[in-house]
Each structure stands twice: as C-alpha cells, then as structure tokens.
C-alpha cells in the first residue's frame, strides 16, 4: 500500500502491485505536499498548501482533526514513532510539534531563515531533523 498527495487537493491510497485505488481523501483546499502513515497504520497525516495539517482515521475514511496554526503552505509532515505527536514543516520558516491527544501545538521551532521544506523524527527518539531553503539542516530536541 502506498499513499500519494496531489495538486488536485486529494490523497489516494493505492494497492500494490496491481495499482488499484483503495481509498481517496478529500478536505484540503489546496495541493497536498506530504502524507505519512501513523506507526500503527490506522491513521494518516497530510500537509497542504492550504496551511493546514490534517489527521485522517482510515477506518472512518474521514478527517478527524485539522491543525491550522501555520501562516503559509505546509511542505511536509511526520509521525513520531509513539504515534502521539506529529511534526510539520512550513513555508512560514517554522516547524511545529503537535500533540494529537490534546489537539494543540506543543512547540514551534524557529531558527531557519527561509522555508522549512522537510521534517522527520529520528526513529525511536525525540530528535527532529529539518531541512530548509536557507541551505541548512537542523536537529531539534522535541522534548
């Protein structure tokens, strides 16, 4: 199974190797830039040009949470290995750590001088790696 996001504002889940579409998610109002499965495989997080990050419950086939504190397009998103936190990277020069249980931003990471283009939790740690259009990489302690 693979998930893709597109300029058509949709994400699609595909079965491999036959390429059949299993599920489609709609709700974003602009292009999708990132998709990431929850560690358990039961949820999906997506990022979009509409400045939001959305969490999708795959069994309900629906968006269950919209995180909307970025002020510009969100380029990327990532789940923490525990499944309780999501990280997002934005054109607004910030990245954020979201607590999905409280549905709030836990921490905003400022320091890049240009768009933050990618974000990833290092496996089984609280360290976050970001890359930016300012031509730097940063490691952050998300605790």
Automatic annotation (TrEMBL):
A GO-annotated cellular component: axonemal central apparatus
UniProt keyword Repeat present: yes
Keyword Repeat appears in the UniProt entry: yes
One Pfam family this sequence matches: WD40
GO biological processes: axoneme assembly
Keyword set, alphabetical order: Repeat, WD repeat
WD repeats: 25-66, 67-108, 109-143
Gene3D superfamilies linked: YVTN repeat-like/Quinoprotein amine dehydrogenase
PANTHER family, A to Z: SPERM-ASSOCIATED ANTIGEN 16 PROTEIN, WD40 REPEAT PF20
Protein name per its UniProtKB record: SPG16 protein
